[in-house]
Structures are given as structure tokens and as C-alpha cells.
């Protein structure tokens, strides 16, 4: 099982999606029902700022599994939210590269 970080970048219009109470409740239920989504939250560059994106830490077998998770999220709107998936390195893998 690998660990992944997903960094979401939102367009300003994403505020409409976040402001929809039913969609927000569906997103929260979705996140809580996914144990592979270990931690996540909104990104803000400074306090009290609108969120320009979000970040997730995910444990999954493959990048495709992570992408499937993203596409199922009620908050994901392709025209308003882009994402970058990054696999975590492990200490042993990094040590092997340095040797």
C-alpha cells in the first residue's frame, strides 16, 4: 500500500460548490466513509481567507485508485477544481537512492 498526497487547486467559482449545504453534507459523508482518506482539509494562505484549494493524504494501491476516489467526491467539479497526485517516498527508498 502506498501513500499519496493530493493537492487541489480551486477556481474562485468553487465557492458556490462549497456554499451548497446539501453538497457539503454529501462531501463530509463521503470523506468519513473512506478510511483510505487519512486526512484532508481546506488550504488557506492566511487566516480568514477564501480557500484556494484543499489537500488530502490517501493510502491506496495505485494512482488510479486515488484518482477514482477524487472523481467520486461530491465536491469534485472538473471545471472548477484541478488536482495533482504525488506519491510519498519512504525512508528506505530514499536511503537506497542516496547509496
Automatic annotation (TrEMBL):
It comes from the Bacteria. This is YCII-related domain-containing protein.
